């Protein structure tokens, strides 16, 4: 589960490597984010030579694609990843980057089909 103050890796080629969660969106008083939830993030570490429109300290939207916290599905299987990772989005909920690195959770298919088509494997 991701909450305010959590540091997350970025799983796309937007030029940002590390972000910090500022706010979890969705509902009043929602405190934790799981796969497919939108969060507001601030860029903390960027690649210096990348020609990205996002600079250090910029605030943007992101969707959670990997989480260390175990997530139990309805069929009884449990999904756990080695890192917490997000994909950056713009105001129209479109990806900032053009590629997604690593695997993502199957729960993204419903709302973010574009992300699942760009990855090699969906778990």
CATH superfamily descriptor = Ribosomal protein L14/L23
Strand order of the largest sheet: 1-2-3-4-7
- Helical stretch count? 1
By CATH reckoning, the class would read Mainly Beta
CATH fold description: Ribosomal Protein L14
- The helix-and-strand class reads mainly beta
Give the count of structural domains.
1
Q: Termini separation (Å)?
A: 18 Å
Task: Summarize this structure as a short list of keywords or feature phrases.
Ribosomal Protein L14, 5-stranded mixed beta barrel, 32% strand, 5% helix, 1 helix, globular, two-stranded antiparallel sheet, 123 residues, mainly beta
Could you please describe the fold and organization of this structure?
- With 123 residues, the chain is mainly beta.
- The protein has a single domain, classed as Beta Barrel (Ribosomal Protein L14).
- It has one helix and seven strands, in the order E-E-E-E-E-E-E-H.
- The chain has one helix at 113-118, and strands at 7-10, 16-24, 38-46, 59-66, 71-72, 78-79, 85-89.
- A five-stranded mixed barrel has the order 1-2-3-4-7. A two-stranded antiparallel sheet has the order 5-6.
- A hairpin with a 5-residue loop joins strand 1 (7-10) and strand 2 (16-24).
- The radius of gyration is 14 Å and the shape is globular.
- The model has no long low-confidence stretch (mean pLDDT 93).
């Amino acid at each position: 589960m991701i909450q305010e103050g959590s540091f997350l890796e970025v799983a796309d080629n937007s030029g940002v490597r590390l972000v910090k969660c500022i706010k979890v969106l969705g509902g009043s008083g929602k405190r934790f984010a799981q796969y497919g939830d939108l969060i507001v993030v601030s860029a903390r570490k960027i690649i210096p030579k990348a020609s990205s429109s996002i600079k250090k300290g910029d605030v943007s939207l992101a969707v959670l694609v990997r989480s260390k916290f175990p997530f139990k599905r309805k069929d009884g299987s449990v999904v756990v990843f080695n890192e917490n990772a997000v994909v950056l989005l713009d105001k129209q909920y479109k990806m900032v980057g053009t590629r997604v690195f690593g695997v993502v959770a199957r729960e993204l298919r419903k709302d973010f089909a574009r992300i699942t088509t760009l990855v090699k494997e969906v778990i």
